[in-house]
Write a structure and sequence with these properties.
Helix content: 25-40%
Shape: globular
Low-confidence stretches: 283-290
CATH architecture: 3-Layer(aba) Sandwich
Number of strands: 10
Bound molecules: 3,4-dihydroxybenzoic acid, fe (iii) ion
Amino acid sequence: MPSPSTNRKVRARALRKPETMARITASVYTSHVPAIGAALDLGKSAEPYWQPVFAGYEFSKQWLKANRPDIIFLVYNDHATAFSLDMIPTFAIGTAAEFAVADEGFGQRPVPKVMGHPELASHIAHSVIQQDFDLTIVNRMAVDHGLTVPLSLMCGALDPVKDAWPCPVIPFAVNVVQYPVPSGQRCFALGQAIRRAVESYDTDLKVQIWGTGGMSHQLQGARAGLINRAWDNAWLDQMIADPQACAATPHIDYVREAGSEGIELVMWLIARGAMSDVNPDAINSGAAHAHSVGVRHRFYHVPASNTAVGHLILENP
Ligand code: DHB
Ligand code: FE
């Protein structure tokens, strides 16, 4: 039974003119394999090994041009690049005006620098912290392949100086590298909080939220090279259709079924939690799934380097 205050909140939300607030229009999900970035940077994307990988993003590049957001909120993980064992934030939001492209040992990738959006990032930090999530605020950070490879897959090869990414990007780093890592449940709830934060920003902005990393892969140890096609696809089915249930997947299931680096998939649940069909107010009012998200594109390919590549575009109604 929804409480009177929940009903008031639902009505207030319904009455608010969508023109006067920022809103999440779509979510994009993709693996971030560093070798994909190298293939693009070295002009190898048409080679027989790589062509089927890049083919899965042809539609997506056109879609992004036709559905260009004002801002991308990009959930990714740092791979001991900006952070090290010295400092391990679970959730870190980039509030700077720009972010350098990291040198991960082979020089910087030849891609444009990443322009941030300090105003919206600060607003989201304030709102999400007030909703009881402890974020680390980062005013200087180099971004690694976890962030730049998804941008390259969705935008294609760009000149590092003459070109720019299509819009500002707010980097949101999640620790999935050093245990303890956050649960899928917490990531999903965080996505819901980010959606409330975006929708309380009184400027008409179209925001996309991207969840990156995954799918099954393990880079070290006795099971290095593990890929689990059946588990990945069942996880995708559930993540789309019943994200609440998917969020309840215990972290040990990711490790067992999708390999030690498969845990990167919890980042997809942040983006999924920000979509409108999982709005908790709507669920309380009994209107859950009245407007389900649309699957615009789905792609899966094995392998790219040591990784199963998964990619989805979901649109809000
Ligand atoms: C690979 C995949 C990753 O997610 C990563 O961060 C590093 C390497 C790989 O498949 O090689
Ligand atoms: Fe990774």
